[in-house]
Design a protein that fits this description.
- The complex is a heterodimer of chains A (283) and B (257).
- Chain A has 283 residues and is α/β, with parallel strands linked by helices.
- Chain A has a domain at 1-77 and 156-170 and 189-283: P-loop containing nucleotide triphosphate hydrolases (Rossmann fold).
- Helices cover 35% and strands 21% of the residues of chain A.
- Chain A is built from 8 helices and 11 strands.
- In chain A, strand 7 (157-161), helix 5 (169-186) and strand 8 (189-194) form a beta-alpha-beta unit.
- In chain A, helix 2 (93-104) runs parallel beside helix 4 and helix 3 (110-123) crosses helix 4 (139-152).
- Chain B has 257 residues and is mostly helical.
- Chain B has a single domain, classed as MetI-like fold.
- Chain B has helices at 8-31, 38-50, 63-94, 96-109, 114-125, 128-153, 157-165, 170-208, 213-222, 226-256.
- Classes of the chains: A alpha/beta (283), B mainly alpha (257).
- The A-B interface holds A 54-56, 73-76, 78-80, 82, 84, 86, 88, 90, 99-100, 103-104, 153 and B 158-159, 161-162, 164-168, 172, 176-177, 180-181, 183, 257.
Chain lengths: 283, 257
């Protein structure tokens, strides 16, 4: 049985011109231990989708099943790492993580909670910064804390909402590398949202492109799942790998053919390289 | 390179003070003969400044002692304002129904002058001391109420989402997230409230005739000792300035935390 299943999920938001559809008929499944990326342009409803899985937003149509049961609001079985870190600025790194452990496992003894917090701080290599407050940390360090907080909940599934999009390219690469390592160590099921094609291919077992609907009116739909059969551990210098090139081309084609005039979000050379082959039909 | 001392930091305020003294002297000499000159004011007031804690009668006391009486009264009224205003602010910020019910009333009560509240206090308590404290509390409360409410309403949605994802209880949501996120707003409210409380004390003491800086001011006016009025005014300004600085330091500490 798949651990997470979305069945025909649709969502719109009210607007002055009547309801504005954002997502239409989204169906996907995640197996236990899988790393799946949702890739899309900004404004394609990625964050809306993950907020619904997190239980922070309700759906209009369809259902979301976690372990076969429909989700009702937020739950401790889903760890969320938000786009903008969302660390509580009045708490230290340790306290931020401890808060999550205290919420998930109130039955633990204080010593056990402390040990578990320290374990996850160690996992993201932040031992030296445990007593610092978020404003004393760099963006990369903050996002590590957020990842550690999500993992410390020991959730069934970890939801990552563009976790690295606010970071500079070098920090981003380091954190992608670390996330791959942590995922290999913990074997967590991960659903990650990103707008970075290479990041998705480097990290994921499967990538779903989120196809933006026409101009302002249309809702986004989900493209076909594109498997990334590159063995792990993967090198971050994938560009010569034929599997990488194939996957990259296929995903770009889907995004562009589904984007309907939104192509300016991508570099022109990539568009030209991708023109010609149609996006394969959804299975 | 060592930065040389900026003398304008010292000279400019001294020049500004001198200019005020000259203006004051000119006005007292040529325009309003009833206004005591700076020299006369100092001669008649020095006892109150140089021996700030002497006491020779209910109103005939050193400025330090009178300011202390006023400060104690302000402390009582202000504590009351903060103790009532903070929870009211939280309720206004947290509950839409509560806000709808009481926001109009607060908007109507807020602009009422202390001079209008004091007689009501006298009717309610039949004594000048509690009436004064009541007036301070009821006038000084509003910045605390409104800033706290605004702080609660503007808690970052991301922080609230963290609490929701962690399924925090209502109590924990309040103590771990909403209260710490609101603290900076609360302290801005507290500082503004203290400024108001100090404004109100003078009016309250003048009307009730209680010993304090304001009471002293009104008594000296009635005794035609005009130099002491200026002494009282300067004392009020000086103490108010110190209070504001003090709260500013406290506020910064909490904003930095």
């Amino acid at each position: 049985m798949s651990i997470l299943e979305l069945r025909h999920v649709s969502k719109g938001f009210p607007s002055p011109n009547g309801p504005r559809p954002v997502l239409r008929d989204i169906s996907l499944t995640l197996e236990e231990g899988e790393f799946v990326c949702l890739l899309g342009f900004s404004g394609s409803g990625k964050t809306t989708l993950i907020s619904m899985v997190a239980g922070l937003l309700g759906l209009d149509k369809g259902e979301i099943l976690l372990d076969g049961k429909p989700i009702e609001g937020p739950g401790l079985d889903r760890g969320v790492v938000f786009q903008n870190y969302s660390l509580l600025p009045w708490m230290t790194v340790f306290e931020n993580i401890h808060l999550a452990i205290d919420a998930v496992a109130p039955e633990l003894t204080p010593a056990d909670k402390k040990a578990r917090a320290e374990q996850f701080i160690g996992l993201v290599n932040l031992g030296d910064a445990a007593w610092k407050r978020p404003r004393e940390l760099s963006g990369g360090m903050r996002q590590r804390v957020a990842v550690a907080r999500g993992l410390a909940m020991n959730p069934k599934i970890l939801l990552l909402d563009e976790p690295f999009s606010a970071l500079d390219a070098l920090t981003r690469a380091t954190l992608q590398w670390e996330l791959a390592r942590i995922w290999t160590e913990t074997k967590k099921t991960v659903l990650m949202i990103t707008n970075d094609l290479d990041e998705a291919i480097f990290l994921a077992d499967r990538v779903y492109p989120l196809l933006r609907g026409s101009a302002s009116r249309g809702a986004s739909t989900l493209g076909p799942a594109i498997p990334i059969p590159i063995p792990r551990p993967r090198s971050q210098r994938l560009s010569l790998n034929p599997e990488y090139q194939r996957a990259r081309k296929q995903i770009l084609e889907c995004l562009i053919s589904g984007a309907n005039g939104s192509v300016h979000a991508t570099r022109p050379t990539e568009i030209q390289a991708a023109l010609g082959d149609p996006c394969p039909a959804k299975p | 390179m060592r930065k040389s001392f900026d003398w304008s930091m010292v000279i400019a305020p001294v020049l500004g003070g001198l200019a005020m003294l000259i203006l004051w002297t000119v006005v007292s000499q040529f325009i309003s003969p009833d206004l005591p000159s700076p020299v006369k004011t100092w001669k008649e007031s020095q006892l109150y400044v140089l021996r700030p804690f002497f006491k020779e009668g209910e109103m005939n006391q050193g400025m330090g002692r009178l300011a202390f009486y006023s400060l104690v009264r302000v402390a009582k009224g202000y504590s009351l304002a903060v103790l009532i205003g903070t929870p009211v602010g939280f309720l206004l910020g947290l509950s839409r129904v509560f806000a709808r019910a009481f926001d109009p009333i607060i908007q109507v009560l807020r602009p009422i002058s202390p001079l209008a509240w004091l007689p009501l206090g006298l009717i309610l308590f039949r004594a000048s001391e509690p009436a004064g404290i009541f007036t301070i509390a009821v006038c000084a409360m509003w910045p605390t109420v409104l800033n706290t409410a605004m702080g609660v309403r503007s808690v970052n949605v991301d922080y609230l989402n963290v609490g929701r994802v962690l399924k925090l209880s209502r109590t924990k949501m309040l103590t771990k997230i909403i209260v710490p996120a609101t603290l900076p707003y609360m302290f801005t409210g507290y500082r503004l409230s203290l400024g108001l409380a100090w404004l109100v004390i003078v009016a309250a003491e003048m009307l009730t005739g209680s010993p304090g800086v304001g009471g002293f001011l009104w008594q000296e006016y009635n005794s035609l000792v005009y130099s002491h009025i200026i002494l009282a005014i300067l004392t009020i300004g000086f103490v108010g300035f110190l209070l504001d600085r003090l709260m500013g330091v406290v506020e910064r500490r909490f904003k930095a935390a």
